[in-house]
Amino acid sequence: MFFLPSPLELLDISHLHHRGIKVWLKRDDLIHPQVSGNKWRKLKYYLSEDSQTSIVSFGGAYSNHLHALAYACHYFQRKVHAIVRADFIDPANQTLADCIAFGMTVECVDRKTYRKRYEPEYLSWLKSRFPESLIISEGGYGELGFKGVADLINEINLDFSHLVCPVGSGTTLAGIIRQLKPKQIAIGVAALANSGYLVSEIDTILEQSQKIAGIKPYWELWQDNHFGGFGKTSPELLKFIEEFYFRYQIILDPIYTGKMMFALFSAIDEGRMPENSKVIALHTGGLQGWRGFTQRGLLPDNYFLTNLD
Ligand SMILES: *Cc1c(COP(=O)(O)O)cnc(C)c1O
Predict the structure, then answer these.
(1) Mutational pocket test of ligand 1: of 26, 28, 62, 64, the residue with most ligand atoms within 8 Å of the beta carbon
(2) Residue 92 DSSP symbol
(3) Whose C-alpha in 29, 203, 205, 298 is 20 to 30 A from the C-alpha of 185?
């Protein structure tokens, strides 16, 4: 049911000023039609632990994480409850409708409460409400999440120089960095504005990891390709996603992978990547995220049909 290892596809980038650079797309978007790409990787070790306990987790109203978690819990027959940052459950919200249909129970909290999601006091209060349950941080952030992501590196039989991925919570990037060989470089492209805090956060995770003790891994966070912030887009970005689709017949999502590929192609074309680099770009999936755009009227309902099909 999970399509693993996910395929690696060489992209023809002859339209760019490529200077011998090669780009492969690691198609984690193909892992599963419901459980989007990196979300499965981040969740799998949480779900294989203690198969009886129920799960509590967090996310925004269009969260790919909650959507993937709801489906996976449905599949593995685990009880799951979500704390959602939203005023109410909008009946038009297909992400939450799917979650509920998969059996997830959903509770809306305001932004102020949602901000407490890492506070020990709030977490112990949740624990008392849901005794015996496993609380998974937003986005699967944590040791088991990093470990699940690291497995994707072992699937790649190719001596690459760079691995590029989109960044939300930083879990995927941290998991990748920890698994790289010396001289391999990880590049994260932030999907949100003001992502500088992630640099020290990821550094802390890396320091805590025993495996890389003594080796300083090389990685970068590109912070200027967020197109105005999380979930924000622009005609330029949408045009890029459309052209990408016409060129490769591969759909990118507007929140993460569209911004990542835009940043990578610009860097190559503008000579900011070293000659002859062998670059793997990680398609983390996230295609269900398009629905939040059409539902909120940010794109016409038939955007996919008219522009992407
Ligand atoms: C959640 C998500 C990300 C971000 O992953 P993090 O591990 O939170 O940084 C990237 N791409 C897609 C498609 C996602 O759904």
Answers:
(1) 64
(2) T
(3) 29
Distance, in Å, from the CA atom of 240 to the CA atom of 261, rounded to the nearest integer, reads 9
Whether ligand 1 lies within 6 angstroms of the CB of 167 is answered as yes
Q: Which residue has the higher pLDDT, 214 or 58?
A: 58
- State residue 287's pLDDT score: 84
What is the predicted pLDDT for the residue at 206?
85
Question: How far apart are the CA of 166 and the centre of ligand 1, in A?
Answer: 6
pLDDT digits 0-9 by tens, 128-144:
999 989 999 999 999 99
* Report for 46-60, 194-208, 267-281: range of highest mean pLDDT: 267-281
Phi, psi of 277 (to 5 degrees): -60, 145
Query: pTM score, two decimals?
Result: 0.92
pLDDT at residue 191 in the model: 97
Token pair, residue 33, equals: 């039609």
CA distance 236 to 103: 38
Atom of ligand 1 nearest to the CA of 256: 11
Find out whether the beta carbon of 36 lies less than 6 Å from any atom of ligand 1.
yes
Please give the residue that has the higher pLDDT: either 267 or 290. 267
Q: Which long-range contacts (CB under 8 A, 24 or more apart) does 269-274 make?
A: 269/16, 269/17, 269/18, 270/17, 271/17, 271/19, 273/21, 273/162, 274/21, 274/161
Residue 3 burial (CB count, 10 A): 13
CA 57 to ligand 1 centroid distance, Å = 15
Neighbours of 288 (CB within 10 A): 21
Q: Can you tell me the distance from the alpha carbon of 218 to that of 297, in angstroms, rounded to the nearest whole number?
A: 41
- Report the nearest-CA residue for atom 15 of ligand 1: 286
SS3 call for 260:
helix
Residue 38 Cβ < 6 Å to ligand 1:
yes
Give residue 163 CA to ligand 1 midpoint distance, Å: 15
Please tell me if the CB atom of residue 171 comes closer than 6 angstroms to any atom of ligand 1.
yes
